[in-house]
Fold these 2 entries.
Entry 1:
Amino acid sequence: MDRKSLVLLLSSGRHPVSGRARAADCDARAVRLALDLWQQGCTVTALHAGRPDDAALADYLGMGLPEITVLGPLDDMEDAVPVLAEAAAGRAPALVLCGQRAETGEGSGMVPYLVAEALGLPVVADVAGVRLDGPGLKVLRAEPAGRRRQYSLDGGGVLAVGAFAPPPLPFAYGRMRRGSVVLQAMQAPPDRERAQWTLQPARMRPNRLDAANAGTDSGGNQALAGLTPDQAAERIMQFLAEIKVLNDAAPERRAE
Amino acid sequence: MRRRIDRSTRPTATDGRPRSSNADRPAASTGATQEEKLARTRVRRVSETPEEAAPARLRRVNAPAAQAPERRHPRPASADPAPVRVDNPARHLLVVSFLREAWPNAEAELTRLAAGLAGEDGAVVLCRIGHADRDARKAGADRLAVLDEPDTLGRRAQLLALCRRFEPQRIILADDPAGAELARFLAASLGVRPAIGVSQLRGDEILVPAADGRSEYHRPLAPVMTVRPVACRNLAPSRTGEARTIEPPAAEPAERRLTDDGLLDTDVSLLPIREAEFILGAGDGVRDFDGFRETARALSATIGASRVVCDAGLLPRHRQIGASGHIARAQCYIAMGISGAPQHLEGIRDCAHVIAVNTDPHAAMMQRADLAIIADAQQVIPALTAAARARHG
């Protein structure tokens, strides 16, 4: 297993409003991290399980990938995981980078875990950054409230890149024209379990008010006039204590 | 017709909780008694004819507490009713919750949902990550395990050992990023296919939105599920559980190639706006920006700014909050000398609590605020620094 070989798994994204094919947001961030590592001497293989004429692939090429290998062609009801795992295993990567969650299909976010299981590698999710560190790697994981947890990887791993990784590289038309898409013919088994589910248009369900507005009733709508600055500061501190913001501010008390 | 039925069957808010129509069947009907089922059927039949719907509605307004659907959410009758004991459960359901709840009361709601799925002879095991000051008995947990290992990987190993010991029929978590991530880990380790983001439970069927959000899968109940708040409506009544404490099994992380180095030190005042949980925003009413930065650091708040301040170059552009800047999703936002232009108010739409300090009582921000203080922000800022330092020591 070459420490410097890296496999990048790309999915086809969808714009959340228009539904147009595009580079998936997290995958595009993964491209950036992969190209950073490529500049430090890693070899990068980009894999996509699907169709070679997918419009989203052009977006990834425009971000600077020289080549994308498409495994397939596969249709929507075929299971991409065994195909990705087989193709990745064939390249014996030390590191697999992918987006956290797909923007089409079931979107359960299980691909990194299933590929990791097939390759026998550990997983780090919500990845916000990665750097080479001697023989291993240091991986940053984004946690709530802007915290960053660092993991050390000895040997390989699967990194699921999340939404707090550095923003994607800009698209350049010339890079898109220079890049190429190569088809590697592969067969995929049908996803039998999913075939038994029924897919229906989603019904709009309003968010629960009490869940969305986390206890906005605590303060009430009160206006105070005629306070001295010290009294005003004291009242603000009291309000912050009521809504438990001050307690949460201490980083060690903000467990997961 | 549809609207009319919905309106007529929706009880008036007596305890502040929104109710859905009876078109949304209760999430956990297994927990409902025969009497309650009968009561529900009656209400449904009454509201099907529009002539009868109006009197039904009137009756409900007059005597809301006496009407049938109210009994689905009974208030705890006495101070502490005798807990239900389940000694040799036929099955276990595991609920995993974090110290920080995904939404208010999430842990109790998920426990109730699990109790409905567990049935009379099943036990709900509540597994908390971190010591939380919440009542597991009242939520209806039969067993309680608290994992307080600081190392995230060690904690996961413990949780996995707990799963191997109880072999839960289902594992239920709240659908927030941390919950979904843990669910994926558990599903992968146990070799099952999870349902991430369940939006409704209908008996043996669940509804899970697809990734694009435009369609949803109707599929059978999954062994590992993360549940959205919208699915936690119309839960079965809560019973008091005994919340018997379980020692979490000792376990070592199986994976030796991955180690947790802990949290990195970060300056909270310089976090990106979209990740910040507590923001102190400066507007045109602030003149001393060095003092303002000090206040933010003393409070452990992230620095935000209005458009006017960024246009003037007093704070960098990436600090700007608003539709034309960044969208804040903070728990608390303090607006110092910000009048509240529409584009700025749009940027704090998702903030749960807002405090405003402004000299103009009629400013739009003062209407939006939960706590509005009519004062000069520039004078309050040094006082706030002093108060915060006095508190934190």
Entry 2:
Amino acid sequence: MLADMLYESISMEKGNSVSALLELFGHFIQRVDENTVVRDKRSFGKFIQFLLALKPDVRRYLLMSIVDELSDKPIVAEAFFDDFSSDLLADLLNENLQTQGSAQPAIIELLQRLSDLRLQKLTTKEAEGEKQPVSKSSTVLADEAFKQKLYVIFREEQREKFVQETYNAALSSLLSSRMLSKSEEQDFLLFRKTLDNHEIEVKMSGILLELIDTPLNADGDSEQLGQSLIDICSYFVRMGDFASLAAIYERTQRVEHPNEQHHKLRQAFLQPDFIEEILQAPVIWGRQKFEEIAAIIYRVGEPFIDPILDRLAEEADQSLRHFYVSSLSGLGHIVIEKTAARLTDFRWYFVRNLVVILRNTGNPAILPFIRTLIKHPHPKVRQNVEKTLLQFHDPDAYIMLLSDLTSSDFDVKMRAIHLAEKHHTQDIIRKLAEIVETGGFSSKEFELKQAAVHTLSGIGDAACMPSFERVLRSRSFFRRGPLNQLKDEIVTSLGRFSSPFALELLQRISASGSNKFARKAKKIAEDMEQRHEP
Amino acid sequence: MNPDSQAHVQSFIRFFIISLSNARMYTIGHPQVARMLVKAYESLAAALEHNSHLSFILLEDHVVLNEMRLPHSFYTMRFAEVFRERGCSHIKVLSTLTSQELGELVNAMAMPKQALPENLSSILLGTIYLSEDGLNVSGDEEILLPTLKDLPQYELEQFREIQETIRTRKHINVSGLYKLVGGFIKVFRQEQPILHALIPLRLLDEYTYTHSTNACLLNLAQAISLGIEGQLLHDIGVAALLHDIGKLTIPEEILTKTDKLTEKEWQIVREHPIKGALFLMDNPGIPRLAVIVAFEHHLKFNLSGYPSVNTSWQQNICSHMTAISDFF
């Protein structure tokens, strides 16, 4: 009857009456305590029966209004919800979620307290080995019924009752798309890799570096941390992880106020066995690690110079010799003194590499050492000396080059012709023109003439035009074929000159007759004129 | 054992571990594997010149050689670890050892699923473990976990014990931690779906316990779903259990303070990952993953959070997992 009256009040929107009723219930719950629940169980039971008899929407309305009061009275709350079915509890939570978007803290707290209390009782029962039967009146709720209620509330398949729809939709979409996208898969594999043993060591080295830096370790064993880091470095070098090694070294170098452990770590990189292991690394790991190994050598620097020079002197493998030369060259000016000290070595191939290293430093301080080798007995050494001196525009270099252009050694002469394109004086240009104009037409001589024409057109100096013209107007009964080929080379090369003298020469050749050179010269001249038209 | 022999054995351990690590990371045929193996053999042969045999007993991360404990180092830890992974804690090497036998051992250990060779006449592998009753020589110690219902109480006691050792700054009972995690993993294997295993723990009013064990359970759930198993799975569980260990260095009044923390108090809170990592570093047998997670668990995906790290830092996936578990 009370329930019917209440329903009527709400449906007729008798606001004042509803407020009065809610207030009445509020007062009632406030007055109910644990003693009431036990002492006056029957009356309390009737009140619960009344609530159960209400229509669901009215009951929800009422329950929502008294939840705050109940959250502070777990025993009363337990008794209160004892006869509620699981669905009613779920309904209450659901209503709360729908109206507020998330569960009201009071409801969550209430459920939490119910859980805590229930657990305490279960624990007591277990501690007593269930020797003493626990009556329903003292536990208020039956185990199974309570478990069932919690299960209903938390069970996954009904999450749509408690979780916002948008969240549910996103979750379902994630779960239904069982396959990871390609980028997600790559991300995952990258992350999964962080669990590899070696990656863990790399991360540990990073953390150890942080830890030896930290003032928080004042009372800790920093020596042990430092030693662990040194051990990890020795491990990395033998595992071929030079990138991690370089990162550690760089980090120790960046520390503004290094402590004892930093100093010890730096020292570890300078130890002969460590350097030896690094230098053994290119042999073991091959080309693919050259760059990473070189990065360590560049960072550590000076201690590597002598050991690398020792290896360079004896290494039979060409790619390793290249690696040593390039590593030493990359060290810059600090290699000059130690490298120059070995220029008197009896092995010409070693001396040649030393000259290359010195040249690669790009430092003019090497010139006095290089000049001592101008008359070295081995031509390969002399060539590199010459190339080095030319790089610094040293006057001695031009004297050497001029001398080579008159050499009877084909290779020496040919190399000098090529070098002359970038390093020339008027004397050298004259000498090149002389090579074109004079001499015979053996295959080697012809090759030299051809190369000289090419070099002269690369230089682009018109000083060679008279020589070219003389060759173009010359005739040879016995060497007609090679001479015509040379003329053809010259006519073609004239197109590469930007000098007006070249155009004039082409026009003169064109006007001189109607043979194939004249026709070719005319065509090239026209092309040149077109190029120069604004 | 004379100091020279001991130094030879330490060299052997170093080269053995490097050879094995290279074999695992690259291939067994990699020249560095063979090179390090030669060095390992030479070192061991030198040690055997003055000893009829060498007996290694592995206790957590410690290596005991002919009844003398070797100094603790990065390499001895790895040595203990690689044999522990194979359930082996006693290695006896006789003076008749050949380089081929050592090579066979490395080859077998390089492949996780390959059984260790049983026909090596000069290398004897076995198991020794200590229990409260003394020395046990065989059999697996069973953890009795009849039902999920019994789990919280059982683990709670173990966890309290572990926590107490940490509070009193004693060394952590690492095997206890592994037992604890092993128990969780067994429960996971028994109870499906995995998340059902979490419900009883959430009901307990033991914050530290529930927080750490829940993080452990959630980490294990994540790791299992990623297909991780074996020793790594255990390490991930232990890492989660210990992730907040640095918090024990924060004064109680700061931890329980309800008002806004002062900048100085925040500073103390922000130090706990470093202090946790430092503490764990000092404990033999703690998996490296636990140190990493203790250090990184307050770092966010974009490397904000604390402690501050350089921009090239790449967080370990286990730290990501623990951060997620920690949040829940």
